[in-house]
Amino acid sequence: MSQHSLADQAGPPTEEHPNRKKGRILIIDADDCTCDFLGSIIKLIGFEFNMVKSVEQAMDLLEKSVFDLLIADLRLPNSQQFLEASLEKNPQLQTIIMVQQRQIFFEAMRLPGASFIHKPFNFDDIVEKIHQAIHNHHLRQVESHIQRLRHEIFRL
Length: 156
Description:
The structure is a single chain. By secondary structure, this protein is α/β, with parallel strands linked by helices. The chain has a single domain, classed as Rossmann fold (3-Layer(aba) Sandwich). The chain is 51% helix and 19% strand. It has six helices and six strands, in the order βαβαβαβαβαβα. It has a six-stranded mixed β-sheet, with helices on both faces. The longest helix is centred in the last third of the chain and has 32 residues, at 123-154. The protein is globular. The protein starts with a strand and ends with a helix.
């Protein structure tokens, strides 16, 4: 398991680095090349991330930490059950599922709220998916906060 924080390396957002954003990403993939590629991309776009190689490691980390986005390879053992349980426990957790085979893609479409990307993917596609997922996560947080405020103000 590895943890990377760009904030420690690059400091706060600046005009020179407008892409430095707050967001935590958990990556689950056993393939070293994919992990290295994703790690490089996520560092470049300015998010913090943790990387694990198994579903078991991911479950342990999700119990200890809060993440905005989960990027997982569906081919890992028990990944389908893990993703279903994670989304049930935390419906606001944004999820990007990496798939290679068309058959697996159709199985994964049953996961509510998850988006998909086919392996091998390119830089632009994964960056767009990550930005979209983090944006959706922040939007859900704001909507939830507004709902709590309405409840407090109007005692609904």
